[in-house]
Amino acid sequence: MAYYKATDSKCEQFQRYLEKLRVLDTLTKVLVALYKEPEKPNSALDFLKHRLGAATPENPEIELLRLELTEMKEKSEATVEVNKKLKAKLAQYEPPQEKKRAE
């Protein structure tokens, strides 16, 4: 009997936790939306994931674009570094600004 009370207590605590975070309300709303859907989707689980904002399976093209973006960011950073070095090198050969004004 004590085992059942402990389990009931844990279950009640978990239910209060879900209620507090409005998980039950959100799930209910999504399930009601599925119920009201005139044409039921082939995959109810995908419908739930989409409505809850879960990530969809990655499209291979998206993954390629992410890789390309990462490469472009790295190239951009490298270009900025080269630009800084070249500007510093160029500054060695240019006369200071004050001398140009005096002439």
Detail the topology: elements first, then pairings.
Elements: H1 2-20, H2 23-36, H3 44-52, H4 60-93, H5 97-102
Helix pairs in contact: 2-3
How is this structure best described in words?
It is a single chain. This protein is mainly alpha-helical. It is 80% helix and 0% strand. The protein has 5 helices and no strands. α2 crosses α3. The radius of gyration is 31 Å and the shape is elongated.
How many strands, which pairing sense, and closed or not: the largest β-sheet? Answer: none
Radius of gyration: 31 Å
Q: Determine the structural class based on helices, strands and strand pairing.
A: mainly alpha
Provide the succession of SSEs.
HHHHH
Shape: elongated
Number of strands: 0
Overall average residue pLDDT:
85
- What is the helix tally? 5
Q: Would you kindly provide a brief summary of this structure?
A:
This protein is mainly α and 103 residues long.
Keywords:
mainly alpha; single chain; 103 residues; 5 helices
